Hints:
The chain has helices at residues 2-26, 30-35, 42-53, 56-103, 108-116, 119-143. By secondary structure, the chain is mainly α.
Amino acid sequence: MVKTYLIILTVYLIATFIIGIYAGKASTSMSAFYVGGRSLGPWVIATTWAATLISASTFIGVTGYGYRNGWAGVIWGGLCMSFGGILAWVLLGKRIRLISEKVNALTIPGLLFARYENKTINTIIAVMIFIFYIPMLMVQFVSS
């Protein structure tokens, strides 16, 4: 049984490596690599976002939150995630894209630095992103 898993994992890693090499050669610029050359449609972005939500941090985190707080916690968390995502998409998505194109930024810290030309803001945002990703990554590692 373990041998089968190792074979499947090895084939998957080799295929991912080959696809990565091919995609790396196809990328012509950093913009093409980071943001798909700004040519990805809304359906690709939406399905990528949905796939990101279907992870161990969501399943284990929501389950633990529901266990601790009951159904009210699960419903409240689901509503916050749903409406928060929709509001971020509607209110921030287009504006961030337009500003990032204007200042030629590829990341949120890069966008804020280009917009305000303040390294302190850039550092604070980068540290906040790092800090808030730690719990998500911890859940990913615990679940494996």
